[in-house]
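Cross-posted from the bioinformatics board.
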Amino acid sequence: MRILLILAAILWAALARAQEDPDPRLIRAADEVALAYVLTGDSRIDETSLAGLRGISRVLTARTTVEPGEPIGIDLDRDDLSLLTFLYWPVSDDQPAPTPQAYLRLNKFLRSGGMILFDTRDGDIAGLGGPDGAAALQRLAAPLDIPPLAPVPDDHVLTRTFYLLRDFPGRYQASEVWAEAPPADAAASEGVPFRNLNDGVSPVLIGGNSWAEAWAMDENGLPMFTVGSGLEGERQREMAYRFGVNLIMYVLTGNYKSDQVHVPALLDRLRQEEVIQ
Amino acid sequence: MNALSFDPLLPWPFVGAVALLALMIAAWSLWRGLRGWPWRGLAGLAAAAALAGPALESGIRNKLPDIVLLLEDRSASQSLPGRAAQTDAAIEEVTRQIDALPDTEIRRVSLGDDADGTLLGTALTRALAAEPASRVAGVIAVTDGLAHDAPMLPAGAPAPVHVLRTGRPDDWDRRLVIEEAPAYGLIGEPVTIRLRIEDQGAVPEEIADRPARLRISVDGDDAQSVDLPPGLSAELQVTPEHAGQNVVSIAFDAPVSAGPELTDRNNAAAIQIQGVHDRLRVLLVSGEPHAGERTWRNLLKSDANVDLIHFTILRPPDKMDAVPVNEMSLIAFPTQELFMQRINDFDLIIFDRYRVRGILMPQYFDNIRRYVEEGGAVLVAAGPEMSSVESLNLSPLGGILPARPTGRVYDRAFLPRLTEEGQRHPVTAGLTGAPSPDGRDAAGDSWGRWLRMSQVVPNPRAQVVMTGANDEPLLVLDRVGEGRVAMLTSDQVWLWGRGFEGGGPQLELLRRIAHWSMKEPELEEEALTADVSDGLTVTLTRRTLDAAAGPLTITLPGGKTEMLPLAQAGPGRFTARWTAPGPGLYRFADDQITRVIALGPASPREFEETVASAEAFAPLVEATHGGVVRLSDGIPRLRTVREGRPAHGQGVGGEWIGITPRDAATVSGMTHRPLLPGWGWLALIAGLGLAGWLAEGRGWPRRAA
């Protein structure tokens, strides 16, 4: 019986390999830089993720050259991740862990330059000692090849890929955001105010600010969730949008902004060489 | 060999005590006025001596024969006219004379060529170390004295060192000395070679002041002539024109005179200057952030030799938000400076999904076009925007782009394939995992597929090396003026990097495209490479886009030519192995391409200096009282002299050199004989004691006084 099942699985894999075209949704992801989110099985969370990514896609389209298409929900157990660039993963207590095959695909995705934003959506209660998303996050992310993490430092390129940011608020703005730790020997180089991190983008970002809820827009482009209160709340929502823009720019351009500080020096060198000649 | 040794019966202090006691008794006897006191003292001392056990040791000695080291220099410089015969005659005569001496052996050390020249010093040091110093009676070196390891010559030797110098007094030579030549040079920047002509030996008067006519040629081009008088340093400016080896050959003809110079092999030199690029500067212009952008960044930033200036349009001019400028991190790019003033400093400009949206002004594109025509490079990686009204093809740059979009975009999966030309083109040839040309392999056996490309009509003279959907051109390469342009009609090469359907060699492909644009010699379509494997054997590889490659014409250093057929080793690759008859400068050519290589040392070290001179040996010869004898004056006679005496001189029958017999011997046994037997000692002591007793007159009745 088991052998039959394995045979069937192999046959199915072979068929899947020979299939004429990949999933059209994924083709779209590759063509349009469509943002993707993990389907958790909880329809309320999934709808929020969709609305959130749709919201930030609209903000990107309105303000930047990046014009993502309609967001794509990803079934980790089924979908090929190699066409994706960015994956939003809301963490909930009762979501089932993906299969080992899915983790293989996820690890390959992370290795080949993809990025996952884990959102524990508990920025309001985390760290107070009560039940928060930490346990669920640990359960889901443990099998992933994640490098050592550290809170995002003040000079991280994420703070200036498009907007200048100090923190990364979503619907909440309390908790810290974690990214790959800078190498121990990274130091501020002379004349450059920022650390010279390697061009690799941190494969994961982990935070609990429930960004999708802050970004979420309905069909008419109206916000779906309240953020904070009054004008200050709207300011926080704007900051959440700015974080979203910076995040996608970071995913797409890597350390581009970090390197831009070297450009004047490079041009200076060109000028000097001309004088010498 | 005899010696006295002691073998005391009791420890030394006891023996000493006995001797002391004897002396005290003698002193006491003297004080008492006893007449026999000397006898008493002597008896005591004899007892002490008996206790010390004196013995006579003698060895058995065997005489050892003396050794004469005969160093025979058979290096290439000894093959110059006349020297070999001189050497043979000298060796024969010296051997005969040494053989005639009693108890003398010859150790012959023959010295050939080494890659580093003639290593006389090393050979001599080694030969001396191999023999016992006490037996070496002389060292005779038959050589022209041209040691290339003079510092290795020993400072002294246990016996006279004689140099029998070959060569004739009227030997002379004119040679080319390269004082300074760089091994590397930046392409397009002149490098300086310093050289001079040097005359050595007895230069005939009619030659001495006449300048030499130098012929200088770079990579086998037509030679330029310069007259250079001997003894003057001249500086020569040479500009490496291409990457890889630039061979500068410099030579002058042997001066014509009654007595020819020793050799003309040191009249030429081939200097190989490796042409290198300065740091490559790449300007990457991304029209919008997209998933493939980091692929370019990874590629260009991982190359330590590339300075990357990257420029992404993060916000188009037509989009605004209400965010104050000081909360934004956008920097206006110095477009005027980059595209107008500094453009010639760049080796490559990459337009990555660039759409013409009013950021770069039309005159910039005009300038880019001029830049390419003057030798620059542009690479366009186009997304679907190329098929839109914002296409780069509609800018002034469009005139030089290798393909024109039709406006149609294929939005389906396709497998990139190499065209027949692509299999030969170095940019795509040999990419791992390429699908087979007949197109029968299933998806998954080879590269992954891409999902989108634009339809283009390639320029007729452009080369289509890869095709995609519907066999439409995917990668198109072209040359414009002196520059190069490449166009990738899809932006989805990053899918290979992500491993979609197994992925593909995306970094390698992009690296090759970029470096081909920057004219890296390894990626030239028409190339002739020569790998010198060992010494004179060379493997020639002709890379071409044509289906066949004709035979190569080889021009030998003497001017003769030879034909060498090539055999196909792969698509567009033709090879042959060939062994040159001797060192020198060889030119390989077919109807398109010429390559000059220097095989072996053009002027081997042996022939750098050729006029015989024993100067290097002078300190050693002097320190050992030896002599330098010119073989052109005849072969000296051999004498024996005492150590430390002059071992070289002028006799009635001509010059002589001396060796010092060493009288070395070996001890093969030892005897140990006591000086006196036990009873002898007893008799001696007793006799002395008795003598003392008698002297005191105790034996006879006391006479009445």
